[in-house]
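name: query_chain
kind: protein
chains: 1
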Amino acid sequence: MAMAVMMTLLFLTPLFHYTPLVVLSSIIIVAMLGLIDYQAAMDLWKLDKFDFVVCMSAYLGVVFASVEIGLIIAVSISLLRVLLSVARPRTFVLGNIPNSATYRSIDQYPVANNVPGVLILQIDAPIYFANASYLRERISRWIYEEEDRLKLSGETSLHCVILDMSSVGSIDTSGISMLEEVKKIVDRRGLKLVLANPRSEVMKKLDMSKFIEYIGQEWIYLTVQEAVARCNFMLHTCKSNPEVEHNSKDNNV
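structure:
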């Protein structure tokens, strides 16, 4: 297509020199009408409202300004969407699917049950400087909300917070600092922080930053199931030995 356009511009444009402007405008109008696809726009509206906004912004920019302006608007809005998805990654509360060792989002699977005394959170994005502060605040909010819910319902108090890091492909120094701050928040509330299934790249950086020594190797597990089993064992041990739980809380204070 590029070669055909180049050949046309170089050798065929003189043939259109004496073509009336009315004919040229008619050709452009017909070509423009052929580019308008109402059904595609309707499909975008049904599937993704944001893509529809990008489409209409590009269309209006081309119609009322120029092709360059329309492309700039569309690309800018698309980049804004990417930045928002990176700066505000999704976090989920996981629950156990009955009669299985599978843990899935409670919002997506209503049959999933909360594990008594354990809050399981999944981070669904790499942890960078752009989203570290948001994740710290979001995790803290999840903890506060879970503790309030357990107090109102009279269920077992919260003892462990498990972070499922299977979707965290990478982490930077700001992300490691965020995990350290989360660990301090969890310790102040007398809880235990557990990591589940961190990727190899993440483990390397956690090891080099001495975070593994800080949290303890015994609190890092391959799967969520193993982490939940460890938390349940600790919970049952504390119930059978109240003095152990009291001493652990005093040490945290």
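note: The chain has eleven helices and six strands.
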